[in-house]
Design goal:
The chain has about 300 residues and is α+β, with helices and mostly antiparallel strands. The chain is about 25% helix and about 25% strand. It has seven helices and eleven strands. The chain has helices at about 40-50, 85-90, 100-110, 175-195, 230-240, 255-260, 275-290, and strands at about 5-10, 20-25, 60-70, 80-85, 120-130, 135-140, 150, 155, 205-210, 220-225, 250-255. It has a five-stranded mixed sheet with strand order 1-9-10-5-8, sandwiched between helices. Strands 2-4-3 form a three-stranded mixed sheet. A three-stranded antiparallel sheet has the order 7-6-11, sandwiched between helices. Strand 9 and strand 10 form a beta hairpin. The longest helix is centred in the middle third of the chain and has 20 residues, at about 175-195. It is globular.
């Protein structure tokens, strides 16, 4: 497998709908304080703000772990163990020059390589058009992460969508609402980034969780979403602009029948790790459900 990405979890064939997913949100799933204290995080943040003053901090959900129920079990099939973190902590841990050391230290101290890392949970979508193309976006050179590379539509579920304010508390975020935010956030990201009407999008199916190894194993929940518009109609909507049009500079379509061969195509080297994760999970979970060969 590509060293930039790993698969933490692969959902059953076809993917999981919202009602098959549960969340346990607890402080025990937050990251551990850094050895020697968290002052280094504040220093990293201050330095980044000097270089990129437009950055802003915000609370995020942290993925601690995920448990898939045995095949054939009744009830929800997936339990996500989540804590709370922030974008500031992400830059000061996952993106810090000490990230590799933090993973080693986490394994030694807690038996968990991710114990000291913020690991904010992202979301991404394998978005399929009515004429069987997957949608990719060329990221702007102005974005903080992966500038100029090719990505799938995506972003983050937001604790502030459920509990306004800079310091949400775990007890103020019921698990069922967190699950709904996880699934609805990917639809909102598609609407904002691709400029598609919400009514043209199907309910998301969770394909699995991929980890970006270029940012110390940060996880992203990857979904499958169908659009009732053709690729040409999607292109027209995209070109007319949207709330987050500034985040990308172009739209790319790949036929779904060719997705399983993307690893051997030139474009693979241009894909963000998150997009690679989405492609791998789509091919294994949704592609197999459609009768396509898995990667």
């Amino acid at each position: 497998m590509d060293p930039e990405v790993s698969l933490l979890l692969q959902c059953p064939r076809g993917g999981l709908p919202e009602e098959q997913v549960q969340v346990e949100l607890s402080p025990v799933h937050d990251r551990r304080p850094l050895p020697g204290g968290d002052k280094v995080i504040a220093t990293v943040w201050e330095n980044r703000l000097q270089a990129q003053p437009w950055l802003f901090d915000a609370p995020k959900f942290r993925l601690h772990s995920a448990t898939l129920a045995p095949a054939g079990s009744p009830g929800p099939q997936l339990l996500l163990h989540l804590g709370l973190t922030s974008y500031r902590d992400f830059l000061g841990t996952n993106w810090a020059s000490s990230a590799a050391w933090l993973r080693q230290q986490g394994a030694a101290d807690w038996g968990d390589r991710q114990a000291y890392l913020a690991d904010p949970l992202g979301v991404g979508a394998a978005l399929a058009t009515a004429d069987d193309f997957l949608v990719f976006l060329r990221r702007s050179w102005q974005v903080a992460e992966a500038p100029g590379l090719v990505d799938v539509p995506g972003g983050h579920p937001e604790p502030q969508a459920l509990c306004p304010g800079d310091n949400p508390r775990h007890e103020d975020l019921p698990g069922e609402l967190v699950v709904h935010e996880l699934f609805s956030s990917i639809l909102q990201e598609i609407c904002d980034e691709v400029n598609l009407p919400l009514l043209t999008l199907s309910q998301p199916l969770l394909l699995g969780i991929a980890c970006n190894e270029t940012s110390a194993g940060r996880a992203s929940a990857e979904f499958y979403v169908q659009c009732s518009l053709t690729s040409e109609q999607v292109r027209k909507h995209y070109l007319s602009g949207g709330p987050e049009a500034h985040e990308s500079t172009g739209i790319i379509f790949v036929e779904t029948q060719n997705v399983r061969r993307l690893q051997k195509a030139e474009i693979w080297a241009e894909l963000c790790p998150s997009a690679k994760g989405a492609v791998l999970l789509y091919s294994r979970v949704q592609g197999s459900a459609l009768g396509s060969a898995a990667l």
